[in-house]
Specification:
With 485 residues, the chain is α/β, with parallel strands linked by helices. 39% of the residues lie in helices and 29% in strands.
């Protein structure tokens, strides 16, 4: 029996829908549709139109998707990428969260956050992280619910596009650009294989561009002028993005431009952009699909929604889930597994941030009761007991930290504030009020003055010799902790 998966790509003033069907023989596009929104008419009218169009799509095609993945307008999300060392999984998670606090300029607890880890060597990981406006996510999810759908994930349009390039066999180690053109915005991302070098989203200044994007019966002179002006704007945006990448070598340049979107003017844009940049430019198509796409599928509007629908149907290398805060991407599981994992995460967060041992014990007892209720309904979940035992051990570890050194969590916060971005902590040892910190830094000479500014650390000095290794200068710092008054 065929399984259906629906991708919903929501833009400022239009929405693209693509439904794929998965059988034993492969995946094909079953049906697609796109419609315009008119946000200038007001939020209530826009919501009503969205619900009406999506409901009609579901009803007309008798659509009953197993999973629904959506992407939201790019400007409500912020995307960052960075590299971190490769310690054990628990230390890696903590290190990534510390790095995210540094890279994002706003409090992450007020946003929906997710990240994806790409191993790039035995000693290094690449992280793609995103944060999006929580209220905006909730608004769009309520629209989906009104239309009768239950979403399964909220991803980035960029993830969808990178996965499509991977399915086409177009991802390699050379520097490439992903250019995503909607009617009002231009999104530019530089990638190397599955790693993200830079990403930015800018408004399109030419008001006539929207006319070319949606229509095909405009005067030829207007189309030519708008296309030429936009190509110049796009070329300058690519150049400024490239020049702003400090991680690239001076001689590195873009080897290929992969175009998504573009609407009715996509073909002309490909030609004009290739002429201006002298870089190979292609409008991305689903060449990996065995069957021809249906007539209702418009690649220049619906490639991103196709990539979203393929996320649960295929094994994609890059996935994020911005449905809630601090989600690390992983493979899909049943809703029962999600319930158990969510309870576990809540328990861990309670232990970390409330810092009260008795609440950890109460949470663990509550988990025991909830697991007893879930087990009879979850006969197919073979790993529940293992996960529960892992949480129990995690909670006990937190209790042990609090009993042995109640200052350890405040110390981690202090290090996160004081240490520069090019410094990583790999080990922290505390005996009574004496602390020893080990790690790597691009310039260890800055560390002691920075930590001496703290009213929490005293008598801070290096211990032993400083050695230069692949990850940077390896250091050991010892200090004395004094509780805050």
């Amino acid at each position: 029996m065929a399984e259906q998966y629906l991708g919903i790509d929501i833009r400022d003033d239009y929405v693209a829908l693509t439904l794929v069907s998965k059988t034993w023989s492969g995946v094909d596009i079953k049906w697609s549709h796109w419609f315009r929104l008119h946000p200038e008419q007001g939020n209530d009218e826009t919501e009503d139109l969205f619900v009406q169009e999506l409901g009609g799509f579901l009803k007309t095609g008798n659509v009953k998707p197993k999973e629904v993945i959506l992407s939201l307008p790019r400007q409500i999300s912020t995307v960052q990428s960075f590299n971190v060392p490769s310690p054990d999984s628990d230390a890696l998670d903590s290190m990534i969260r510390m790095e995210m606090d540094r890279h994002f300029s706003f409090p992450l607890d007020s946003m929906n956050v997710s990240y994806h880890v790409v191993p790039i060597s035995p000693s290094k990981n690449h992280v793609i992280a995103a944060a999006t406006n929580r209220e905006q996510v909730g608004m769009y999810l309520s629209w989906i619910a009104r239309a009768g759908l239950k979403q399964s994930g909220v991803d980035l349009s960029l993830s969808s596009q990178m996965n499509l390039l991977d399915q086409n066999g177009q991802l390699d180690s050379k520097l490439q650009a992903i250019v995503d053109i909607s009617s009002t915005r231009l999104d530019v991302s530089l990638i190397k294989g599955k790693t993200l070098i830079a990403s930015r989203s800018v408004s399109i200044p030419d008001k006539d561009f929207k006319k070319v994007f949606f229509h095909h019966d405009l005067p030829e002179s207007l189309e030519e002028q708008v296309t030429k002006d936009f190509s110049t704007f796009l070329t300058k945006t690519l150049e400024s993005t490239l020049y702003g990448c400090k991680s690239l070598e001076n001689e590195e340049s873009i080897t290929q431009i992969n175009l998504f979107g573009g609407g009715r003017g996509a073909e002309a844009l490909v030609s004009a952009l290739q002429t201006q940049t002298s870089v190979k430019t292609e409008a991305v198509l689903p060449t990996f699909l065995k069957k021809d796409s249906p007539l209702s599928f418009t690649p220049s509007l619906q490639m991103t929604s196709l990539g979203l629908s393929l996320r649960p149907a295929l094994k994609n290398p890059i996935e994020l889930n911005l449905h809630s805060n601090f989600q690390k991407t992983k493979r899909k599981s049943s809703w029962k597994t999600t319930v158990v994992l969510l309870v576990m995460v809540l328990a861990v967060l309670t232990g970390l941030f409330l810092d009260q041992t008795y609440k950890n014990e109460n949470t663990l007892a509550s988990l025991n009761r909830q697991l007893e209720e879930i087990k009879p309904q979850a006969t197919q979940l073979q790993k529940i007991d293992e996960q529960h035992a892992h949480l129990a051990g995690y909670t006990e570890s937190l209790n042990a930290i609090e009993r042995q050194s109640p200052l350890k969590l405040p110390l981690l916060q202090e290090l996160s504030k004081k240490l520069p971005k090019d410094t990583w902590v790999t080990r922290i040892s505390i005996k009574q009020n004496q602390v020893e910190v080990r790690g790597y830094s691009a310039a260890t000479s800055r560390l002691i003055p920075l930590l001496e500014e703290s009213d929490f650390l005293k008598n801070t000095q290096f211990k032993g010799s400083i050695t230069t290794q692949a990850l940077g200068e390896r250091f050991t710092i010892q200090s004395t902790m004094e509780p805050r008054k």
